[in-house]
Amino acid sequence: MSQGHDKKGRPLVAVTGMGVVTSLGNGKADNWAALTQGRSGIRSITRFPTDGLRTTIAGTVDTLKVSPYSAPSLSIAMALEAANEALHEAQAGSNGKFPGPLFLATPPAELEWPQRRALYQSALDKNESGYRRLLASARASDWDEMQSLFQFSSVANHVAERLGTRGLPTSVSTACASGATAIQLGVEAIRRGETDAALCIGTDSSVQIEALIRFSLLSALSTNNAAPEQASRPFSKNRDGFVMAEGAGALVLESYEGAKRRGARILGFVRGCGEKADDYHRTRSKPDGTAIIGAIRNAIDDACLSPDDIDYVNAHGTSTPENDKMEYLSLKAVIGDRVANVPMSSNKSMIGHTLSAAGAIEAVFSLLTIRNGTLPPTINYAVPDAEIPMDVVPNVARQARVQAVLSNSFGFGGQNAALVITAP
């Protein structure tokens, strides 16, 4: 085994750049300062009217202005903001060209209510109605521009064009596991020798009225509207649902040998990727946790490590009653009795659940945890749950030497992914 390969003979995959945008701010510095101080980015929604809604709070990104506003436009803006920070740190690419492919996690694309209403109202033939009126409106409007935004590959296509990545960009949507899946695709491409570098991004601007209503109908969202900053309470006995949020995270991945050859600074390694799906329910996890357990085990095995090597868990920790308990039981099945002592915290207590972007954002936070030797806290932890006896780094950040992080991402539809990220 050479220095640049793992125990399985595969190229080591190094991280040479990272960038992030969340409700806490733009960039690693602002986000890390807020995370380690235990500040929340959850606030009342001002982007659209919330009268009559059960949930009126979210972790919105209000620092990037796009005009005219649309969900895809904000996703593109956040992805570019995070990617440019990562590329600047990695000093990767020249003349506007990145020397590798783009793997981008994004939610399914669809026209939101404002765009549908605009289409319907702009029909030339007022005698038409229903679907025919929508078609007439589409023909009469700037359909090419709308089509360039409201299709599944649109975000990746726009980002790839701006950053000059190689080949056709890959869009992936595996629910809340998407960001981790995008990173996994980049890792596997480098391991197969298809490329020396990959740009992996997760971006999500799903804080829209239609999505908010859908999640509310599932009784998945917190309704603690009176105290937004206290609404996300992962692993607490009084947790009552997750808080929707938006943001983007980006990693520049390179083969270790390629990074060393060009003198790049190694920020860490993505050592292991694990995934496992189940077909139990459209939203709920399989009660025995086999898929989540399998994803965690696969990631640790893929990293050529043992469960005892994990120093810290960046938990999925959504703040829903079922998911938090399932994550604890699954970790216990893998880690054993150490589960009570291995620190694990959820940054969703501060930024909310960024859905398709979560895995990528939390990979950035995992690397910052390693680099700074600081464990971000799980805030709003005032009422411990006796059924989840874990060290959740309650309320206050903690200093610790961290060599290996397990970062979990579990999605609706039984889509589960886990990453093992280690120190350089």
From TrEMBL:
This is Beta-ketoacyl synthase. Keywords: Transferase. The keyword Ubl conjugation does not apply. Residues 10-423 form the Ketosynthase family 3 (KS3) domain. Signal peptide: none annotated. The keyword Transferase applies. Pfam families: ketoacyl-synt, Ketoacyl-synt_C.
